[in-house]
Amino acid sequence: MKTADLSGLPPGVTDYLQAEGIEELYPPQAEAVEAGVTDGENVVASVPTASGKTLIAELAMLSSIRRGGTALYIVPLRALASEKKAEFEAFEEYGVSVGVSTGNYESDGDWLATKDIVVATSEKVDSLVRNGATWIEDLSCVVADEVHLIDDAGRGPTLEVTLAKLRQLNPDLQTVALSATVGNAEDIAEWLDAELVDSTWRPIDLKKGVHYGNALHLDDGTQRELEVRGSEKQTAAVVRDTLEDGGSTLVFVNSRRNAEAAARRLADTVEPELTDEERDELASVAAEIRDVSDTETSEDLAAAVEGGAAFHHAGLASDHRALVEDAFRDRLLKVISATPTLAAGVNTPSRRVVVRDWRRYDGTAGGMQPLDVLEVHQMMGRAGRPGMDPYGEAVLVASSHDELDELFDRYVYADPEPVRSKLAAEPALRTHVLATVATGFARSRGELLDFLERTLYASQSAEPDRLERVTDDVLEYLERNEFVRRDGRGDDATVDATSLGHTVSRLYLDPMSAAEIVDGLRAVDGRPTALGLYHLVARTPDMYELYLRSGDREEYTELCYEREGELLGPTPSEFEEGRFEDWLSALKTARLLEDWAEEVDEDRVAERYGVGPGDIRGKVDTAEWLLNAAEQLANELDVGHEAAVREARKRVEYGVGDELLDLAGVRGVGRKRARRLYDAGVETRAELREADKGVVLGALRGRRKTAENVLENAGREDASMDGVEPVERAAADGEGSDADGGAEPTDDAEPDAGEADDAGQASLGDF
DNA sequence: ACACACTCAGTGCTTTCGGTTCGAT
DNA sequence: AAGCACTGAGTGTGT
Predict the structure, then answer these.
(1) Which nucleotides of C are covered by protein (CB under 7 A)?
(2) Which of A622, A623, A645 is CA-nearest to residue A635?
């Protein structure tokens, strides 16, 4: 089918597509059109990565807009939301407006209602529904990207419930679901009353294979010599081979440590092959990486990048990730060794993909567990860049002949697992039952069960009673914690949310987190300390646990007894194995947050807790959100302590001691600048407006532009630094200048080491 | 001849991917 | 279970 034959799209769009070189639709796209995707029909498209799924979505949304409607595009990751927005903005010149809504980006508001296309994460959509955004009801088309994630126990139920709600709100809603190739796409299609487009067609060929010995065995039965020279590893041999062919490689491994070690080694393989020009450009990328953060992770990454290799995992700061992804797309970096983050994230195709590790440690299973076929296929699907490579090659690595056979059976020739709803589990239902009741979707037990009948779980369940049973357990739990009221028994029993329940639902808290916070705040004796509050939020299920390593157990047990008085609520007994363990790991997180709020340098925090800069940011972000929620709960319940909670939140947010809160609130002033201004005698925003310019300039290390911005942001009339000379004023020693009680010799010996260029980046609030 | 760098084998030991959500600026 | 980190012995290189 030709693009020229498409009808029902906004004027100019077909011309645009042709100008983009899209003359002919790919077969799955043509199938989707035949299935009525441009006529408002529901369609489920189960096709491989990079086979033109996005165009199917665009055709659906644009034709719907053409008929006067609006569209919502649901993605699983924030990074994907901005990527998709950028793609859809190509249609703005044809009068189609695009907006994004994620947790950290341009929140709700009426302006979203004015957009033709809104891109949002599934949680954000859920949250918008809970908060009663009315424009949601006027949607004419919804697209769910990566819909196979419904299989994910953690986040899948949100997507599932959200789709069910949108469809209930608006029975005429066109639903388009895009999925990777899965074992049971027909189940999803049936659930959504949709036509199914199920295809394995790819625009460029993907060859899958296994490397063993000195040969690459491919799924078409051929094999090729691929020699492992001397002491190099198989992965290095594949990378070298690809490089000789002018291509780049993506290597997937099973842990962050492995990713870093592999990048270090692969840099040695790649470095000799680089041109001088490439070395120069890589050196400047490395410099940018070092600018992002001072940590060892950052330094290791920069060092690898200088050799043309990089690692990629969630411990990296988001700026790190973007730099690495861009340099790889620009073909500057020849290899990335990554954890699975990269397979799910933004588009980074590569000539070759190596899946080095196919087992991953799983504590609950007590050892290494094989990866899902779907996951391995997702990684393999990154091989081959459309329009650039003749074909892609995805390679597993075997170290024995038996393993060679096993890998072929298990992954190369195997079909992916079916998608199974994980809705009927307490943690998932806890939050969604409360939300469903609080928003008035269901007013009785019967209505609740009716609504749940509309989910994928119900449509594929072999155990129909299970949902009902778990729902009753959850209602029981919610009632016990005063989130809902029930009247009567059986199907007619009315259920409605209490005021507290409404607040919890609106705040998007897991009810169990809310219960923990409420109990904790009620147990406070006196004024809660920052550590106590950090511990409180760190032990809720909404904060991911920091892993306890060897030696940590003793250290934090000791700390736990030392500061027991600060922790809110009763400390579990050491004999309650699991509970005590969780308590300690929350304490470790709380300690990290406390360090951050006491101005311990990022690199020291990273080292002390064995985390990367990205982890610190993540923890700080989550703590901010939960403390904000805690403040509102305190307010709602009238238990007091709002001021203490707010202060603790602001201190993690800015990463400063309480005496710096006022200064750090000025835009352009992060934790480091605030400290230097304070030490120079400028202690508040008001003083900043009146201060001697020379002193300000001196404290900001002679950076005129920075100083002018800061003064302007503080509300000073005459911010100009013309003719001002920096004045150095000795820091006031002692008192409060080192909030970190445990005197750190390195801090004093070289107070400014590594922060020569801290322009703006010292504050986490920036992004 | 010697210091130093590097490789390699062997041992022990640690290991455990990812991530959204508020509200205001 | 497996790869990494570490150790120490052995080898190679340059002065």
Answers:
(1) 1-5
(2) A645
